[in-house]
TrEMBL record:
It comes from the Eukaryota. It comes from Echeneis naucrates (Live sharksucker). Keywords: Repeat. RCC repeats lie at residues 59-110, 112-164, 165-217, 218-269, 270-321. SMART domains: BTB. Residues 388-451 form the BTB domain. This is RCC1 and BTB domain-containing protein 2-like. CDD domains: BACK_RCBTB2, BTB_POZ_RCBTB2_CHC1L. The lineage of its organism: Eukaryota, Metazoa, Chordata, Craniata, Vertebrata. Pfam families: BACK (PF07707), BTB (PF00651), WD40_RLD (PF25390). Coiled coil: none annotated.
Length: 545
């Protein structure tokens, strides 16, 4: 439950930048359209998803809902069907928000400060008392000289991550979830050290009664309640200090998400591992057996870029590199035991429509329709005939573009368009798919092609001497290499003098030599390329007994 992942640079705000409709959450149903348009961040929480906070474009913070334990931060216990402003938070620029089941609410600001309010029966507000907090209060003990970037809450405990990669924890500690080495509640923030001493944490998450931390080197640690195996240690014993998940040795974890009693982890290769409780199929293993050790989830070879879970539910979700969203676990009362493909565009939609309660799993960041960044505006205008002044004709199809942008972005077009006033140019050398992808890249700085089609774009990038595009193509091809297409991709790398890609493909072929040499592509391999491949493979010792 946090706004931005900064885990090795892989994640952006709001589920990879998608525009969200807060109208999917019923608590916002009475807000007039003019108010909805102002919302930039939002969070829905509470035992019945009946409480919400949101931040407007003017950085004003509002709350509405049932206000259990004063969790709206309004200074009283009154419920409110209409939004009321939380004055103390206005202008604070919230960067991370999380909540417990009391509920208590904790935020981190752009200045690195932490504020907390709501239920405090177990000192989860970190102020040294057990009195509920009716208004947001600065959490100061041991944090005044620190800058906090991320917060995460379990049912009644809180953990915070600093810019130094340190973790602080406080609140309910019956199972060791504060990581202090005891089971005494922790009334104020205390640094979680032990095995985390001198290590740099980059991502945190909490289950109901456990805590997880991902390190900058890809290791993952867990502590607290473990009766369902949610710590991934291979046993069911609670842990009062952080323990490394040894079963993931050699696997590079970049993001962790915790459900009520299960855990999901994403690797740098786009794989998902799951462990813990599984009575609703929330591990995605195809059965309902708990797993005390990390188990890799079958996602049909799709590369994943995000995992999502929330400590209030048994629902799991994930997003693929191509933008597809999968869900499994408890989905509106049904137990879905394997990842199920949805039509949703974000993991947030899964929780809005299928989780019980239908709360947000992290702080949403909402881009309204009436404001677009420069990058978004350019992307929107690509291949739009309305104000374009040039079209390319490729394979009988039109692609609408803007001369000024092409001149700015590409030396080839600067030279070409300075010599001609034509408003239509025919292209014969490249396919429509490849040329459209090239022009779209000039508008977006990204490419969206499967690996086999990226070979054609690599050819174009080489021809136009577009070095960065060539590099992007190589990365796309690398991510999609398989035993079936490895020789085809190697041939392309050699043809277009992509040395890094050639070396990558060659090593892949050597590591999967038996399978690769049985493919049709190997049988059809160019004679000179085959001769060079065998010669180089022998130097690598590929044919030794």
């Amino acid at each position: 439950m946090f706004l931005e992942y900064n885990v090795q640079g892989m994640y952006n705000k709001c589920s990879s930048g998608c525009m969200l409709d807060v109208g999917k959450w019923p608590v916002f149903a009475l807000l007039p359209p003019e108010e909805l348009r102002l919302i930039r961040q939002a969070c829905v929480f509470g035992s019945a998803a009946n409480e919400a906070l949101y931040v407007t474009v003017n950085d004003e913070v509002f709350a509405l809902g049932t206000n259990c334990s004063g969790c709206l931060g309004l200074g009283d216990l009154q419920s409110t069907i209409e939004p009321r402003r939380i004055d103390v938070l206005c202008g604070k620029k919230i960067v991370s928000l999380s909540y417990g089941t009391g509920p208590h609410v904790v935020i981190a600001t752009a200045d690195g400060e932490v504020f907390a309010w709501g239920h405090n029966g177990y000192s989860q507000l970190g102020n040294g008392t057990t009195n509920h907090g009716l208004t947001p209060a600065l959490v100061s003990t041991n944090l005044l000289s620190k800058r906090v970037t991320e917060v995460a809450c379990g049912s009644h405990h809180t953990i915070a991550l600093t810019t130094d990669g340190e973790v602080y924890a406080w609140g309910y500690n019956n199972s060791g979830q504060v990581g202090s080495g005891s089971t005494a509640n922790q009334p104020t923030p205390r640094r979680v050290s032990s095995c985390l001493q001198n290590k740099v944490v980059v991502n945190i998450a909490c289950g109901q009664l456990c805590s997880m931390a991902v390190l900058d080197n890809g290791e993952i640690y867990g502590w607290g309640y473990n009766c369902n195996g949610q710590l991934g240690l291979g046993n069911n014993g609670n842990q009062q200090t952080p323990c490394r998940i040894a079963a993931l040795q050699g696997v590079n974890i970049i993001q962790v998400a915790c459900g009520y009693a299960h855990t999901l982890a994403l690797t740098d290769e786009g794989l998902i591992y799951a462990w813990g409780a599984n009575s609703y199929g929330q591990l995605g293993t195809g059965n309902k057996s708990n797993q005390a050790l990390p188990t890799q989830i079958n996602t049909d070879k799709e590369r994943m870029v995000e995992v999502a879970a929330c400590h209030t539910s048994h629902t799991s979700a994930a997003k693929t590199q191509s933008g597809q969203v999968l869900m499994w676990g408890q989905c509106r009362g049904q137990a879905v035991a394997s990842p199920h493909l949805t039509h949703f565009s974000t993991t947030d939609d899964v929780f809005a429509c299928f989780a019980t309660p239908a709360v947000t799993w992290h702080l949403l960041s909402v881009d309204s329709d009436d404001y677009l960044t420069v990058a978004q505006s350019l992307k929107k205008e690509f291949d739009s005939p309305e104000i374009s002044d040039l079209k390319f004709l490729v394979d009988g199809k039109c692609i609408h573009v803007h001369k000024a942008l092409l001149k700015i972005r590409c030396e080839h077009f600067r030279a070409l368009l300075n010599e001609t006033d034509e408003d239509a140019i025919e292209i014969h050398q490249f396919s429509y798919l490849v040329y459209r992808a090239f022009l779209e890249y000039l508008y977006t700085d990204t490419i969206n092609l499967p690996p086999e089609d990226a070979i054609g774009l690599l050819d174009l990038a080489t021809f136009y001497r577009e070095t960065r595009l060539k590099r992007l193509c190589q990365e796309t091809i690398k991510r999609g290499i398989s035993e079936e297409n490895a020789i085809t991709l190697l041939s392309a790398a050699v043809k277009y003098e992509a040395r890094d890609l050639e070396e990558f493909c060659f090593k892949f072929c050597i590591n999967h030599l038996t399978a690769v040499t049985q493919t049709q592509a190997f049988a059809d391999m160019d004679h000179d390329l085959l001769k060079n491949f065998i010669s180089k493979a022998s130097r690598y010792g590929a044919f030794k007994n």
